[in-house]
Amino acid sequence: MFPDAPTERGVKHIEELIDAKKNGFEAYVLFVVQMEGVDYLIPNDETHKAFGDALREAKSQGVTVLAIDCKVTPDSLTANKPVKVKL
Predict the structure, then answer these.
(1) DSSP per residue over 7-71, as a string?
(2) 62 pLDDT band (50/70/90 cuts)?
(3) Could you read off the pLDDT of 63-72 as tens digits, one per residue?
(4) pLDDT tens across 28-51, in order?
(5) Helix, strand, coil share of the chain (percent; to 5)
C-alpha cells in the first residue's frame, strides 16, 4: 500500500501528470517497490484518500500507472519484475 503517510506533494505531481496527458504528452507513474514477492500495489486510502483518488483519476485520464519490484542486496537495488497495480 502506498503512501504510508499523507503526501500532498504526491497528489500535486499526479495532478501535473494529468495536465501533461491532457496537453498531448505521454504520462506515467512508476512505483518502485524496494522488495521482492509483492503480489500487487494498491493506494492506501486509509492513510491518504486524496492520493488514491488522484491516482484513480489519473488512470481514467490515460496516465499509465506501473509498479515494479526490486532485488535488494546490501550493496544493490535492481529493478526486477512488474507488480500488478489495483485501483
Answers:
(1) -HHHHHHHHHHHHHHHTT---EEEEEESSS---EE-B-HHHHHHHHHHHHHHHHTT-EEEEEEEE
(2) very high
(3) 999 999 999 9
(4) 999 999 999 999 999 999 999 999
(5) 35, 35, 30
Q: What distance in Å separates the CA atoms of residue 47 and residue 40, rounded to the nearest whole number?
A: 18
**Closest Cα to residue 66, out of 33, 34, 20, 36?**
33
First to last CA, the chain: 11
Residues recorded for the chain: 87
Cα dihedral: 9, 14, 16, 19 (round 10): -160
* DSSP summary character for residue 34: S
pTM for the predicted model, two decimal places = 0.92
